[in-house]
Each structure stands twice: as C-alpha cells, then as structure tokens.
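User: Please run a holo structure prediction.
Assistant: Happy to. Please share the sequence and the ligand.
User: Here you go; the ligand is glycine.
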Amino acid sequence: MRVLVLGGGGREHAIVTALSRSHHAPEIFCSPGNGGTAALGTNVSIPEDDPVYVAEWVERNAIDFVIVGPEAPLVVGTADILAADGVPVFGPKAAGAHLEGSKAYAKELMERHGIPTGRYRLVQTNEEAKEYLDEVGAPVVVKADGLAAGKGVTVAETVSDALGAVRQSLDGHFGPAGDLVVIEEYLEGPECSLLAFTDGDTVLPMIPVQDHKRAYDDDKGPNTGGMGVYAPVPVVDEAAYAAMTSILEKTVAALKSEGVVYQGVLYGGFILTADGPKVLEFNVRFGDPETQVILPLLETDLLDVMMAVTEGRLSEVELAWRDEVALSVVLASGGYPGTYPKGKPIRGLEEAGEIEGVTVYHAGTAMDAGGRPVTSGGRVLNVTAVAPTFIEARDRAYRAVDAISFEDMHFRTDIGLKAIRARGEA
Ligand code: GLY
C-alpha cells in the first residue's frame, strides 16, 4: 500500500511514525515532510495549495491512500478532487473544512443547532464594531474570519484594544481572511481539546489534550502555534468528557442535516466553564502539537482507523489507549513566533532518543548537504515522553531536552506542571 501524507510538521512526523507501525506496512511518501519523515519514508515536493497538481501526482505515483495533515489543502478542496478520482483521502471535503476556514460559518452553525459557544457578533466595519463593543464592553476576543496561520485571534482587555484589533483586521493585516471579523464573548476556565475520528455518522473521541499556546512559562508572552502539550487532561472529569463528546456528535449530525458528510478528524477546542464545556473553535484536522501526544498513546492501528473513516464503517472500530500519559515540549528557534534564523546545526538527537519512553518528533528541521540535521522552521522539535505518571514523563522529556542543543533554542520549562498538580502527583 502506497500512502501519501501532506504536511511537514511535528504532526506529520507523528502520523508517519504511527503509520510505520501499521500491520499494512505502507510505503510512505510525505510532502514536504521534514528531517524526521525522511527516515521513515520518502520526502517529496508537491505544491499543497494546488489540488489539481496533488491529484495528478497521486495518479502518476499510484498512491492508494492520502492523509491530509494541515487545514489549508482541505479548505481549497484537495479531498473533493481526490475523492472524485476515486482515491481514498483522510480529511474532510471543502464544505466540511469550511468549519475551520470560516469562523463566522462555525459560529452560525453552532447558533443554528444550539451548540454551546460564546455570544458573538459578526462585523464588517469599524462602526459596527464600536456599536457592539459599546453594548458588551471588554474583555472580548476578536477573530479574523478566515485562515490567518494562527495569528488572527486577539484577546482584548479593553474596548480600545478590541477596536484596534478589528481595525488591524479590516485594514488587511491578514489579507482577505480579515475582511469579516468575529467579536466573541471572553469565557473563563481551563482550556482543553478533544479530537474525534468521524466518518460522518459515528464519532469516536480520542483522549483529551491540553496545549500551551503562549510562548513563555506561566502562559505569558505572545500566542504561538503551541509550545507544549500533555494528555490526558486530569481536570476533565467524566461529565466534561461526555459533554464534549456529545458536542462533537451534535456538530457532525448538524453538518449532516445541512448536507455535509464530514469525514476525518474533528478537533474541538473547548473551554471548561462553570456552565459546562463551550466551543472556542473547531479545527478540521489533527492538532499540532496535540497529535504528538495522542498518537503515541493510541494502541489501535492508525491506518485501520483511517481506512474505516473513509469507507464509512467507523462503527466497527474501537479505539484502544495505553494506560499511560504523554507530554511533549516544543523546542523553538530564537525569535519564534516572530522572525527567526534557519540552518542552525542541531546536536544531541541520538542521545535524547535513547532515553526510555522518549520520541523526538521533527517539525522545522531539514538535512544539510552532509546529511546532518539543521533548523528550518520556528517550531523545530517536539520532545515527547510517555510514562506511567506525569512526574516521570516530565523528567524523561526534560532530560531529553537537556541533551539537545542548537543556537538560541528556546522552550517552556513548565509543561506538565498543571497536570501534576491536578492529579495530586506532587
Ligand atoms: N495546536 C493548535 C492547533 O493545532 O490548531
């Protein structure tokens, strides 16, 4: 079986690693891939924003199954074109991907179907924004409607900050993605993500996971794509898990009732409020770095699950999970999430990977002319440790982090502390 994975981050290295354990023993291609995926398959270069080219490449190279990692190729209809060619593809078609491609669409869908989320207003002018903000005050969350590479969300403490964020968006800071703006109620509580596999009918939730979006310890500094993550999430009790699962089920059913059969991963970003979980956002794919702790704990063959999704027989599948925890620390380039240099030699990967329970997923890495790993992105490596307890997982992960170095490497030192406290491990 020949499988193509689109994407080149830590998420895709984790997917490729899980595929390499599959009993189907697939031959794996990854585009663009990274230094880690190159060791498990063949990195290729296919323009991911060109679905027609992707489909031609898939046909030319006799690919049997395609897995789409990031949202952008899904939003432009890669799954639609491949499916029309009869190629099984893991990831929703454009109509389903719109759930991430337009925050306004997601909010309106939730409103139509009574799915719990914060109050909101859509605005297209500064005047509309002022009128609404005069009514609701601050704090509020201001979001560009479309895809903005994770940068289109501002938590505004004051009305003036909120108006500034709206103006920035309407002025074209995020391109056309910011022409429509969602102003949303600020909700309080711990954040948690629950991802589920779905074939459009059956919804199989994974384990809950908690990302750390801010760049620095104690949730300080600018937002990033995610600086660390752990799973499961001790503050999620059975009631919260059931409520989040029910929201995901309701969302898949809502889409279906409006003619959208959603297949792939549905990622619910939740906030656990005093009134129960509410949806902050939906993503239409695996999270990054969430996948780097979910898949190491998944015992079920990932390719079997994905094939069941595309064949509409997910009801036959039961997910099995290791009775352990996982934690991942993101090692970033100096300057990230702003500008950063590339091409810095990375040392210590072998030593780190030898620590019990540790896997180092590559994200922004490449190989230099001599075949040595160098940095090539903002988030460079995801150091993941699996262990029976969070204390042990933290110890393993940070020992591995200590073994790795590259110039101006930065990372958070507090990943997993919340879980340790919540579980009463210390
Ligand atoms: N870590 C957040 C995301 O994947 O969207």
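The chain is about 30% helix and 25% strand.
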